[in-house]
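Fold this complex.
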Amino acid sequence: TQLLEQSPQFLSIQEGENLTVYCNSSSVFSSLQWYRQEPGEGPVLLVTVVTGGEVKKLKRLTFQFGDARKDSSLHITAAQPGDTGLYLCAGKTGANNLFFGTGTRLTVIP
Amino acid sequence: ETGVTQTPRHLVMGMTNKKSLKCEQHLGHNAMYWYKQSAKKPLELMFVYSLEERVENNSVPSRFSPECPNSSHLFLHLHTLQPEDSALYLCASSREGRRNEQFFGPGTRLTVL
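Structure:
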């Protein structure tokens, strides 16, 4: 089983601050996805990165895939209360195998 | 109705009960998944169905029995569960292919007494 470690596990910040969440593994993935999950709901896909070194931006969110395709980061600029949630990274290996990370629970305080 | 739906949203059952969880996807996908989400543990993949055939069973106890009658519907039959099986059970679907972007339902919160 591929293990994806996310850090930090918990993060509580003030509105307007910047933050970075990390997703690390010793395994190589063909692609990596980031999801956000809110209480009482299933995870919602934010982005998929495929190429080593790839950077994708989604408004205030910046996602980067490591050059070796083993790790990824999510940077949020000027966090807002609506960003609160559980952030999950997930690495894909075979045709259907998607391995989820341990999660980072983010709270943005107004 | 669009997306992935799951029923019931909440379920409380005794250890001797038999119940079923239902998942339906309206996205035209051809792969469906069951996941278990427990506190303090990563999402655990339980079963994968691709083109209505089970292609993955990650050492799940036999008290969990999946069924996929067609590409739009997925069931998880439960019997003689244990309290440690209490968790959020999530269904997801995707289109076969390299990107494998999975779309999740809202989950069923299961409590086993």
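The mean pLDDT of chain B is 89.
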